[in-house]
Amino acid sequence: MQSLKIFALGDMKPQGDVNSDDTRFVRTNHTSSLVKVIEGAVEDLVARGHLPNVDAIIAKAPDEDNGAGIVTSVLRDIEGSDLIIIDVSTESPSVIYELGAVNALGLPYILVSSKDSLPFYLVHSRSILNFTFSDGFDSSNESHLALRNRLFRNYKSPDGREASESVFSFYFGGLPIVNVSGPVAVAVGYKTNFLNDFGGQGGILSSSVKMAIPTPGADETSEISVNPNYLISFIPNPATFENYDRAVTWVRSEMEKAGLELVEASIIAKDGQKMRRGKGVLALRNNPEVIFDIPRTLYPLMQSPRVLSQIDRIGPDTEELRDRLVQRLLLDFRDALSWSINRARADGDGSWRRIVVVTDQEKLVSTVQEKLS
Predict the structure, then answer these.
(1) What pLDDT is recorded for position 66?
(2) Which of residues 170, 198, 219 is at a domain's end?
(3) Which of 49, 68, 244, 285 could bond to 261 as cystine, CB 3.0-4.6 Å?
(4) Domain extent at residue 53
(5) Cβ distance 265 to 205 under 8 Å?
(6) What is the pLDDT of residues 257-296, one digit of tens each?
(7) Which of 146, 170, 194 is the last residue of a domain?
(8) Could you give the number of structural domains in the chain?
(9) Considering the domain boundaries, does residue 328 fall inside one?
(10) What is the model's pLDDT at position 20?
């Protein structure tokens, strides 16, 4: 059965000593009244045959949370809800902060206020003004009917987008902030779609493989058997190396300075079994047990909405500003990749400790020499 989880937020004030773990942070207020109105609206929808039962829409408020861990508890409930209803009557800084978090996460929400106007940044929102907070649903009250109808529309919506609006999202063409840059998704995708084949249980780093490698001085390849020891993933700076080919050219040049030849190769078989599709890698000709990769997936970040919208709105002659933005996106990518790999290492899965991520180009050669010694 389809269900809709609703979390009601509003001004929260402490009762008693704010430093005590026993402090009750939410006294009876608009939030608890809002939940009662919602519950009554749900009962009305059930009576009209629009909902199967009252469990189809469940509303919750943070009224029972105590001082210890209140922020974590509220954020957990925000993330775990389908729809957030926010009372902005008091224009409380805490409520506006919570609304910012909801906006950033791209969650559907409905604003209600007992006033007849909203703060400047919220005036665009399709809110319910002059809302009546009471101990139950009143079918003759226009604000209660408006809320009931919006609850039902959201219940029927497969994604809840109808109730999602944000000045920040409008600025980025409708995308919520969490989806604007994408470095986290790109990093986790790289780990899942590429690195898993090397570090996972039974992966390439724990196998005997057959590698197709260019034959010196000939336009052909030869097949060699290799037991790979390390995969070195070099994360280039897109502001320095604007595309994959330039990054490869630089790495090959640095290896040559150290007396090492880097070539394009392909892993075509593992444990004696031919792979359905070869795995393209970079390898040292005389030390093919050390494999390299430069994630091609990193470069689409340069075409992300966050970068392109900055160029469109601020102008192309802002190279330093763009480069700082790229540095932040790159840092997000690196942090997300490290987080994802560390989770795999903590699970003791496969050969993840033999995957080395290099983010400092000055340390690339020394890292390779260390692994070869």
Answers:
(1) 55
(2) 170
(3) 285
(4) 4-170
(5) no
(6) 999 999 999 999 999 888 888 899 999 999 999 999 999 9
(7) 170
(8) 2
(9) yes
(10) 55
